[in-house]
Amino acid sequence: MSRISKFFKGGGSAASKGRGGPSPQEALARLRETEEMLSKKQEYLETRIERELAAARQHGTKNKRAALQALKRKKRYEKQLNQIDGTLSTIEFQREALENSHTNTEVLKNMGYAAQAMKKVHENMDLNKIDDLMQDITEQQDVAQEISDAISNRAAFGDEFDE
């Protein structure tokens, strides 16, 4: 089966059919294949247009009928080329949207994993215990400050006499 018929008839791996659709990677690969095929067809049509234009110039005024036929074929090829340009734009847009959707899905999945990990880390933490611990830390910092203040005050030896 050719690539084109596979693409339009849905010929893909059995695994992708069993899951209810192709994976994002499979869809992206197909879109890229289609882009490549259309790009090759674009190149082919561009060369055909150049040949027909050259043929029209060659026949010029000598053989008007052949020149007109060449120009008509050139116009037909240009129409096909415009259609391919539009199709390529649509495919590029769809590929970019699929890539963004796949990226968003992966980001969301990873954020879910991170949320689960945070939940697991916080399982053994009790807010009351944390509040008590913070109060203990604050009290100990106050005690340390009082000790530091007491040590750093100048000793007033001899300044205070009891008469």
UniProtKB/TrEMBL annotation:
Chain residue ranges for the region called Disordered: 1-26
Domain of life: Eukaryota
Main location class: cytoplasm
GO cellular component, one term: cytosol
Gene Ontology BP term (one): late endosome to vacuole transport via multivesicular body sorting pathway
Membrane topology: Peripheral membrane protein
Compositionally biased intervals (Gly residues): 9-21
Keywords: Coiled coil, Cytoplasm, Endosome, Membrane, Protein transport, Transport
Protein name as annotated: CHM4C protein
Record InterPro entries: Snf7_fam (IPR005024)
Entry's localization field: Cytoplasm, Cytosol; Late endosome membrane
The family this protein is said to belong to: Belongs to the SNF7 family.
